[in-house]
């Protein structure tokens, strides 16, 4: 029997839920099978290894992140408002019942030292986010240094909110971002 796209999606979504909730190393392929409802033979026909599945889950997580940021920025007018919308997106995310931090940071923390593929996927996602922020900063005519600072605030807010369990990290990061943006625009 051929694996269908819906099997693929069910496997990735189930693995994403389990890895995010429990941690990658704590979840075996049998748990993914049970959660997805896809027989183990078809699961392995789609993903030859847990590592291959994890990389696909990270790509899935990246798409969720990108679409969330895009949706938050869609109603914002101008690069400054779009930059601040990132922190509004984070604030809403941090307040969800299932927030457990950044999936990329979590995966890197668990496996980045032993899996070059996980490390590369995490670095790729973080770099893509910095490029997104950098493009908006450039559109404002501010220094590229501001992009690194704003991305660092967002990354730090994710880690702080996950560890502390307090979602206000996004509010504080947004206030700091406003200060940095305004100062950068004064000197631009």
TrEMBL record:
One of its GO terms (molecular function) is DNA binding. It comes from the Bacteria. Residues 5-65 form the HTH tetR-type domain. SUPFAM superfamilies: Homeodomain-like (SSF46689), Tetracyclin repressor-like, C-terminal domain (SSF48498). InterPro entries: Homeodomain-like_sf, HTH_TetR, Tet_transcr_reg_TetR-rel_C_sf. Keywords: DNA-binding, Transcription, Transcription regulation. Residues 28-47 bind DNA. This is Transcriptional regulator, TetR family. Pfam families: TetR_N. Coiled coil: none annotated.
């Amino acid at each position: 029997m051929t694996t269908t796209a819906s099997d693929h999606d069910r496997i990735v979504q189930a693995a994403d839920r389990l890895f995010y909730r429990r941690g990658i190393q704590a979840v075996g392929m049998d748990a993914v099978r049970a959660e997805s409802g896809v027989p183990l033979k078809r699961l392995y026909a789609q993903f030859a290894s847990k590592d291959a599945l994890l990389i696909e889950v990270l790509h899935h997580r990246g798409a969720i992140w990108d679409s969330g940021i895009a949706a938050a920025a869609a109603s914002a007018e101008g690069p400054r408002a779009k930059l601040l919308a990132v922190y509004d997106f984070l604030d809403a995310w941090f307040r969800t019942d299932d927030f457990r931090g950044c999936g990329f940071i979590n995966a890197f923390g668990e496996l980045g030292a032993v899996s070059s593929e996980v490390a590369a996927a995490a670095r790729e996602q973080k770099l893509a986010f910095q490029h997104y922020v950098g493009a908006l900063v450039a559109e404002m005519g501010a220094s590229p240094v501001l992009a690194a600072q704003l991305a660092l605030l967002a990354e730090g807010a994710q880690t702080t909110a996950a560890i502390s369990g307090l979602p206000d990290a996004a509010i504080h990061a947004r206030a700091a971002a406003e200060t940095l943006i305004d100062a950068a625009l004064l000197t631009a």
